[in-house]
Amino acid sequence: MVEQGGSGDSPRNLILSSLQSTGFWSFVTAVVGVVALIAGGAMYFTVEELREFSVTVIVIGIVLVFLALVLSPRAIAIFLVGRQGRYGSNIIVLTIAFFIIVLLVNFLLYKNPTRVDVTATRIFTLSDQTVQILDGLDGLVRANAFFVPADTQSATARQQAEDLLNEFTRRSNNFSYRFVDPELQRSVAQQYGVDSFPAIVFEDLEDGTLQGVQSFSEQDFVTSILIVSGADQKIVYYLTGHDEAGATRDLLSGEIDEDNGLDYAIGGMQRDNYRVLPLNLKQEAVVPDDAALLVIAGPRQDLDPEELAALDNYLKRGGRMIGLFDPTTPSSFNRLISQWGVFLSNRHPETNELLSVADAVSNVAGEELTPLLQKANLQYPPSSSPLLQGIPITDQIDVTFFPEAAAIDTWAPPQEMPPSVRIVPIGITTPASWLEADTEDVSYDSEVDRPGSFSIAVVVEANATLAVDATGGIVEAQRHPTTRIVLFGDSDFAKNKFFASSDNADFFLNSVNWLADDYELISIRPKVFPYRELVVTTRGRDFIKWSSWFVPPVIMLILGAVVWWRRR
User: Fold this and answer.
1) 44: enclosing H helix or E strand
2) Is residue 59 helix, strand or coil?
3) What does pTM read for this prediction?
4) What is the CA radius of gyration of the chain?
5) Other CB atoms within 10 A of residue 66 CB
6) For the ranges 194-198, 269-273, 378-382, which has the lowest average pLDDT?
7) Mean of the pLDDT values across residues 353-363?
8) Residue 565 burial (10 A CB sphere; 0-12, 13-18, 19+)
9) Residue 549, Cα to own-chain centre: how many angstroms?
10) Distance, CA of 327 to chain centre
């Protein structure tokens, strides 16, 4: 009898009897249906790309639960009111509560703009200026992103653009975006004038103003938003006719002809929403009234008296100018700027030899005639300095360099200048610098060479020109509207060859933004994506490999053995 009973309760018989029971299948169907409902609901609320699939899973779950009730309503009822039912109900309630809490926390985190960016260069953090611009949007702006989903080559660019657009959307309720497949929706692409992909077109939804971009950086997006939201396009002129650096791009091929051009700087100003035009004073005779500022980049020929008078008149009526003056800069440009208390020390007072700044401590690769300015060396005055109040040009600058630069001197120390003239050095060399005349044999001679430090970049704000009275004191000569000048003792740092090196581009463009009163654009530059590489020895590589394979399982086995030993 015992053997018969035992054989009757054998695992095989139990399995067969369970498979033949409608109650068993009702239970299995109910469990699978509930799991499907929970999983489908979680996918619907958390993964937008799987919403259609999650709806299908939810429907399957509902069908399975209904089928369980049809197969054996009595078994379901007994299960629900029994001890197992109570335990199961508790588990289901706790599981649902867990997912609700997770979804609620995710929703709150999504709505909360606070982020903790732990990347070295804060590549996922919008600049303060961008946030201010987004907060100040009055009208509705939408970004129409045209990407082909099947194009794997643009997948990275799409992800980058989507991440940035999503951050913009989170910062402003007046900004939105959408992705459009230009192959499936050709009429939409034609409506926005898009014929090459990928591309993003920013649109003012109230007046229909459009601005397209094909590079996807924070700066490009901000510039486009400023354009479509009605920001005026200011005009920047760069002087020509004296062998200055200018545009060298071939209009047919689009290629840049030489390293000494100003093409990249011009392109940077255009991306900052400036209209950049050449200006020949021999032809125009005056600086146009619509000039936001004038750039003079590395002139090599003197100004005619009429040209000098035109520039002088422009500055005295409140003009703005960037002067990129090399040691070879002709004397007429020195006369132009000297009436505001600054001048180039580009010639030896006795021999008239050209002088360049040499720095024995902070230079590029041992080239002493290429001074390297570094924030770590305190070569940019700190932004907290009272002298720099209202001049944020160098706030975000870390490293710049200036090949064969001239020193910029002042008539007197800045603190001794009349209150109508404000002169602020914003880039200085180290005390181990000097003025060198012999570029072939660079060495410091204490008996001949003048030691530093020297100013290579200077800001001038003035309401009057200066003169020297009979006693040798500095006095105001003529009052005029506020003139702003940013002087550099070098033009090479802003030319094509070195423009993209270190922070050279930011230094130049920030100066343009400050002179044009576009403070919101200062330092909104593409962030660097650092490349990080782990370099290990063969032994270190083997340790990482084998430890990752065996250490976690061994730890789990030890923990399992400890738990078993305590519960045995």
Assistant:
1) helix 22-46
2) helix
3) 0.62
4) 36
5) 13
6) 269-273
7) 92
8) exposed
9) 40
10) 34
